[in-house]
Amino acid sequence: MRIGTEERPLRVAxxxxxxxxxxxxxxxxxxxxxxxxxxxFDRLPTPYGLVRGGVAPDHQKIKSVVKVYERSAESxxxxxxxxxxxxxDILVGDLTKHYDQIVYAVGNESDRRLxxxxxxxxxxxxxxxxxxxxxxxxxxxxxxxxFSGKRVVVVGNGNVAVDVTRILSLTPDELAKTxxxxxxxxxxxxxxxxxxxxxxxxxxxxxxxxxTEVKELGHLxxxxxxxxxxxLELDPFSSAELERxxxxxxxxxxxxxxxxxxxxxxxxxxRKIRFKFFVSPxxxxxxxxxxxxxxxxxxxxxxxxxxxSIGARSTEEFEEIEADMALxxxxxxxxxxxxxxxxxxxxxxxxxxxxxxxxxxxxxVPNQYVVGWARSGPWxxxxxxxxxxxxxxTHMIEDLIKGAVSDRALPxxxxxxxxxxxxxxxxxSFDDWRMLDDVETHRGRRRGSPRVKxxxxxxxLSVLGIRQSLEGQ
Length: 473
Prior knowledge:
By secondary structure, this protein is of the alpha/beta class. The chain folds into two domains: 10-109 and 334-471, NAD(P)-binding Rossmann-like Domain (Rossmann fold, 3-Layer(aba) Sandwich); 110-332, 3-Layer(bba) Sandwich (FAD/NAD(P)-binding domain), CATH 3.50.50.60. The chain is 33% helix and 21% strand. It has 18 helices and 20 strands. The protein has a seven-stranded mixed sheet, sandwiched between helices. Strands 6-14-7-8-10-9 form a six-stranded parallel sheet. A three-stranded antiparallel sheet has the order 11-12-13, with no helix packed on it. Helix 1 (19-29) crosses helix 4 (66-73) and helix 1 crosses helix 14. The longest helix is centred in the C-terminal third of the chain and has 18 residues, at 430-447.
């Protein structure tokens, strides 16, 4: 019997319910002349990955992309199993028994570290934790932040760095209109922060943030972006790069905005967002109680490497700046999955063009694939992964056509929910999620915000009656 027909649909398991996972599901469910059945698993009861737990709460327009994912979830050939952890509740062997192919869409959930002295002082924290905390991610809801200090340093020049800087700069009224976690709204509402300094390892031309993000910093009610003239003095490498890219490029638009902020001077608002380029932290310095007090910096310069690319290196110029908090936003990295080959050097699932492969030999693991950041590392905006996930689905179909998928009898569809029920695993369906979604948005209307999130998994299950029903059996 041919696989991919109504009589014998292609059965696919997708581990992870973020954007890349849903884009893969969409590509599978809409492929012409092929019938696929997709089961999606996530360790949280809630879907959408970084759209829910990573996108800034004041960026509701970006979050509207979930409407696209909902269309896939409405397919009769799609099922969602939330609150199911891969490696604990279900293993690779379980998936290979029940499915023809597996797609890993687990993202990069771990933060990158600087590896410098003082990184574990009180007040120094990965931006990953802060982002998860204010977004109400269950993993980070119990993190503790002290906003009674005056000065914050943000290490990094990407969009995440800009996001955390902006969130720290918003007023309580601005925050209340977002879906920021209720405990974060309360804590940030008491903030005494006066100055936030963004540190860039290279210059303004090389900054990774986008013009849209930087422009938002100029429209805050109580914060001024401040760019000293000396920070925009370009070395020959930067001047050549800017000329080559052009004024209409991302780099050109960034520079135009930074020059506009430079012309504004110090501004009149109580909070200041200061840009500082060509510096790297060497050491976080604390007091006798282990609290962050200063950051030691080294000045960097650009140089041409042997192969012709432009890099940054340290000079002999040093300085120290005061800081009560430091958020390190230098990127994300993946973590290993039980039973799945992992590339320790690149910190991603080991793969060859989206096909899982062994890092030492390059040998392909049949019928296992990876999409999104777990495939490539942390690059690209949400929408850019639609084509990338579709590309991997193309490889999956090619492998199917070549006969890589064996024509074997699979357990019935109901075997998976039965599998979980027999083991006492409280899985959450997409209909269950819709119920949670309704409750969250109802709570949000009372606050005048899009939603007030549940941040505790136990609370989510209680609202759904899952825990009570199991206890009553």
